[in-house]
Amino acid sequence: MLTPAESAALDAAFAAAAQGLPGYDPNPPVGCAVLRADATLVAVAAHHGAGTPHAEVAALRVAGAQARGGTAVVTLQPCAHTGRTGPCVDALLEAGVARVVYAVTDPSGHADGTDERLRAAGVEVRADADVERGLQLLGTWGFSHTNSRPHVTWKVAASLDGRVADAAGASTWITGDAARARVHALRARVGALLTGTGTVLADDPQLTARKADGSAHDHQPLRVAMGMRDIPRAAAVVSGPGQFLHLRTHDVAYALDQIWQRGIHSVMLECGPGLAGAALNAGLVDEVLWFTAGVLLGQGEPAALGQWPLASAQRWRLLSASAVGEDALSHWQIDATPMEKV
Ligand code: AOF
Ligand code: ZN
User: Which of 18, 36, 124, 218 gets the most CB atoms within 10 Å of its CB?
Assistant: First the structure.
């Protein structure tokens, strides 16, 4: 059980964490609050990205001597490893806190041994105080460490009748300016964009994250093209801000593993129907962002190649649907629970 002061401190830590990271970061969002021995809240801080102090260190700095005999309340299990910064468990022991409360265990292994070290030093540990909220905050970072692969978002821009290109292969532009701007903002929040060599050769996309004025977003996702065919050095995807990677494979799982090995935890799939079908068949699509434009194309390319009979086809769960400019955006997530028939 948490005391009322600890519950309030945990809420404050979650609120701070949600504001902590500006966009894509290799580290997870984390918040920490410190209670003095008399249960007064004396510090709240968040982690602001790789290379900057972890939330605990930042909060303990604010708390100073008031942390001694107090409680550190964290949204994530404090780390025990030396990465870009030192172990938080050392900082907590040095500060002399009497109790540590954290919402969820770190699935990355970076906090292995933390609880044991704290307890051995006489510090009380309340582990997994709010696993659901903790995991939700960790988002794709938590998903990727739990599944040992990046989280995959499949982005589609299609006509009302589900075509992603007309019968002649033309696909630019099906959706409007607002949808395009939204896609660029999404690109700035993922670790990598994945496409096929076929799309690179046919459409020559840049696959960068750009603002309305054409300038680049601060964070550029790794641009990845998978497939056997050579990519000309003059292809737009090769140059530009950020990095480009060509993976000579047709195996989606292998490609995702290569991306994961580079420390990337989220991927947006922006590809043709062949790669989309392969990713779906391999069970490697976790969510779909489907932009629909108010246009009918009749004959044309479907979003994904495959055959999924209605009786056994995978059902997706609708999370939200909204207007984006003159287009519609629906957000779907995979769910093992069958959809209710109406
Ligand atoms: C914490 N508090 O605020 C964060 C943690 O390489 P580093 O030093 O930046 O460490 C990154 C890892 O530390 C990250 O993978 C995750 O396991 C943990 N993040 N841990 O105790 C924090 N951001
Ligand atoms: Zn840490």
Answer: 36
